[in-house]
Amino acid sequence: MNKLLKTCLILSILVVQAGCAPTPLAPVNGGAREVPASAPAPEGAPEQPGLEYQIGPGDQLDIFVWRHPDVSSAVPVRPDGKISTPLVEDMQAAGKTPTELARDIESVLAEYIKSPVVTVIVTGFVGDLTEQVRVVGQAMQPRSLPYRQNLTLLDVLIEVGGLTDLAAGRRAKIIRRQGAEMIEINVRPDILLDKGDLRANVQMRPGDVLIIPEARF
Prior knowledge:
Blueprint (H helix, E strand, L loop, with lengths): L1 H18 L5 E4 L4 E4 L23 E6 L7 E4 L5 E4 L2 E5 L5 H12 L8 E7 L7 E6 L6 E3 L6 H7 L13 E6 L2 E6 L2 H6 L14 E4 L5
Parallel strand pairs: 8-12
Antiparallel strand pairs: 1-2, 3-4, 3-7, 5-6, 8-9, 10-11, 10-12
């Protein structure tokens, strides 16, 4: 009996030691450094920022108030960046995301409606000025375009109908804000359109201005 008890005691100690064993280590960067294989991400690590659409003058908005169709409405954003809806007058909309605007409308409607629930849907996109890409000069349809993720020079040229016969594609450039400075980026839309050379395609950024000058004769 004593021998059996001793064997059980030894097995119990081994089990406890196994449960307290350190987490296996996994090599990192070719074994130069080791960290626990299942190490959690550090607390408070910043998340990668995502692009959120900001409302701009000229946008068309559908404002839906749940269970209150009488105060729901479809409105444009005025040139001054504001909107007016039933019970909400002259509220700033430009520069806000649809979610931010919905919360602001709820705060005003709360004076008249118990626990309002508002949804803002953008049905016509223009975007805030800083979120637009502007095309000036010898494009078939020079205008401002709403920026969207992964927008390229080719996408912009298609939107504006290409270049005119008077365009000097060799001297085209993009004016871009970089920090507190404005920089110039030389581009070749003529090569991109005429030869289909995708090496001339570049990524656009919000606020870019594409300038296409007139050819010199």
